[in-house]
Design a protein that fits this description.
Length: 584
């Protein structure tokens, strides 16, 4: 600031002080004056802001009053919030002359006040006028407070830092040492285990095969156990459907020498259909089977006595119903429920010759779910298994023959190969025509120390080839190969021997650990009644596809069920039956 204005101001300072004291009539106390003097010391800021005092009011200067209500200055404070800084021009700037004149005029009006107010007004007026003349820059609101620490504190922080770094370095060195020790131990272990690893490399594939086999066996056992629990319920369903009392009359499955009955699967299908007819009509079920021999010679009743004694029905009204193959169309409307079934089989003894499975047709009957609930709830596989185990068990003759069969190894791999027309059975239509090398390639990879090999077939040549290929593992059943429905047409054949071999082959397939099937009802029935669902393969085309008891029906549909072109499944009953709302 130019010296003229300052000199003028301080030249009148003493006069103003005396005037102020004379007006107020009061003398300042020495301690108050010392306090004010200490407020402005060499240790404080030397800007005009440090001249501010508390409780100062500014008298009017011209038209506008100057606000002197400024914050107190605390000598002990470490930080101070500053106002916006005035953009003062350089010292040689000509604006200072005009600014000096303007400031002189303003200061003249402050001489009437006391010293404190004059000092406060000086800084305030100078800041206000400078702000109007030159403008301001935005103040830095950051605190000037500085946190300082003593030398001792700095030394302590340094020691802590060095200790932390030393500790981390020690941990890293220990970790590295442990890693090196582990590597040394691993190297030593590899040197020791290398021969064992080399042996494991050569023998691992067989070991994996064995382990996978064990896992598969364990899984199969678990599935079989769970299925056994469910089969208990299935068995109860069948038992609950058997009437405790019957109407007057008998429904008899007939397989006599007067008519062809088909193979073993045809006969089991006919037995199932006739058994369900007996449940619907509530008549007692029996089996009359003497083609080519008595069924009771090989199978005995298990839970239900089905044996037919013709001597008991000599003078009784009886009638034969030949419903074999297409002739069964005669009973189609009765089986499906469109007509009353009891009016069709109305004799006292109804001998029914039937070789087709009419399960799908019977399921279309109204109210069949309440009449025979298990026929609608169970799968074909479970239906046949439950019915077979309910009706049959090996007779003493068959049991002795089965026990006489020698098995050398813990497991048996079986295959049923239905060739059809061959020198063994020349009158049979041709069946499976795929090369046997597909089967041999599958059997070749089996562990011969674990598996015996059994081949059930209708062609002697297949058995001979298998015996030549696996001489130490092949097992056979006693008797001659033949078709049980064709032996009556050929002379010099032991009917009992052929039927016994057929039954032994059937039970051998039921108890196999691995079972390979071709398109034949004989093998399908064995798979249905089999105690396990694992290790089952369906031979279709050039591949052996894994399958189960519940998928065979879709892979080989025609050998068991009634042909759909003759018996389409009727999902809807007639409007007439619906209106009646009762079973017929």
């Amino acid at each position: 600031m130019p010296s003229t204005s300052v000199a003028f101001f301080f030249g009148n300072l003493d006069k103003t002080l005396r005037t102020s004291l004379s007006v107020t009539g009061e003398k300042e106390k020495p301690e108050e004056e010392d306090t004010r003097r200490r407020r402005i010391s060499q240790d404080e800021h030397h800007s005009t802001e440090d001249l501010l005092l508390p409780d100062v009011t500014q008298s009017s200067i011209g038209e506008e009053p100057v606000n002197t209500n400024l914050p107190q200055v605390d000598a002990g404070r470490q930080s101070l919030t500053r106002r916006d800084r005035v953009k003062w021009p350089p010292a040689d700037d000509k604006q200072w002359e005009a600014f000096d004149d303007d400031l002189d005029k303003i200061l003249e009006g402050t001489l009437i006040e006391d010293v404190d107010k004059k000092i406060a007004a000086l800084s305030k007026i100078a800041y206000t006028v400078g702000k109007e003349w030159f403008g301001t820059a935005k103040a830095d609101n950051k605190s000037n407070e500085q946190t300082t620490s003593s030398r001792r504190q700095r030394e302590i922080e340094t020691l802590r830092k060095e200790k932390s770094e030393a500790s981390q370095g020690s941990i890293r060195r220990q970790t590295m040492k442990n890693s090196l020790d582990s590597l040394r131990l691993l190297n030593c272990s590899l040197l020791v285990l290398y021969p064992a690893l080399l042996c494991l490399y050569w023998y691992l594939p067989p070991l994996q095969t064995i382990l996978k086999g064990n896992d598969a066996i364990s899984s199969a056992k678990s599935q079989d156990e769970a299925r056994t629990l469910s089969l208990i319920t299935n068995h109860e369903l069948l038992l609950n459907s058997v009437p405790k009392s019957y109407n007057n009359g008998f429904i008899v499955y007939a397989c006599s020498k007067d008519h062809s009955c088909g193979g073993w699967s045809d006969r089991l299908s006919g037995i199932l259909s006739v058994f369900v007819i007996s449940l619907i009509t509530k008549q007692q079920f029996l089996i009359h089977h003497n083609n080519p021999c008595l069924l009771a010679d090989f199978l005995a009743p298990k839970e239900y006595d089905w044996r037919y004694n013709s001597s008991n029905f000599v003078k009784t009204d009886k009638k034969n119903y030949v419903l074999l193959n297409r002739k069964s169309l005669r009973a189609k409307k009765y089986l499906s429920g469109e007509k009353n079934l009891t009016k069709y089989f109305k004799s006292h003894i109804n001998l029914i010759h039937m070789n087709w499975d009419f399960t799908d047709v019977i399921r279309s009957r109204p109210h069949i779910g309440s009449e025979v609930p298990w026929i609608t709830k169970l799968h074909f596989a479970d239906i046949y298994k439950e019915l077979y185990n309910y009706l049959f068990k090996p007779s003493e003759t068959l049991s002795r023959a089965l026990k006489s069969q020698i098995r050398y190894r813990p497991k048996t791999a079986c295959a049923h190969i239905r060739i059809g027309k061959s020198p063994t059975i020349p009158n049979d239509p041709p069946r499976h025509q795929q090369p046997l090398e597909i089967l041999w390639n599958f059997l070749d990879i089996l562990d011969k120390n674990v598996y015996d090999i059994f081949i059930a077939t209708d062609d002697d040549r297949v058995v001979k080839r298998a015996t030549n290929r696996y001489p130490k593992n092949i097992v056979n059943t006693d008797g001659k190969i033949g078709h049980i429905d064709a032996i009556l047409q050929r002379k010099n054949l032991d009917q009992q021997d052929i039927f016994l071999k057929m039954m032994m082959d059937f039970y051998a397939l039921i108890n196999c650990d691995i079972l390979i099937l071709t398109e034949s009802g004989f093998g399908i029935m064995a798979a249905y009644i089999r105690n396990s669902d694992s290790g089952l393969y369906c031979w279709r085309g050039s591949e052996l596809n894994p399958c189960s008891r519940y998928t065979i029906h879709h892979m080989f549909p025609w050998p068991v069920l009634a042909p759909p072109e003759y018996f389409p499944v009727e999902r809807r009953v007639s409007q007439k039956i619906r209106k009646k709302g009762k079973s017929v």
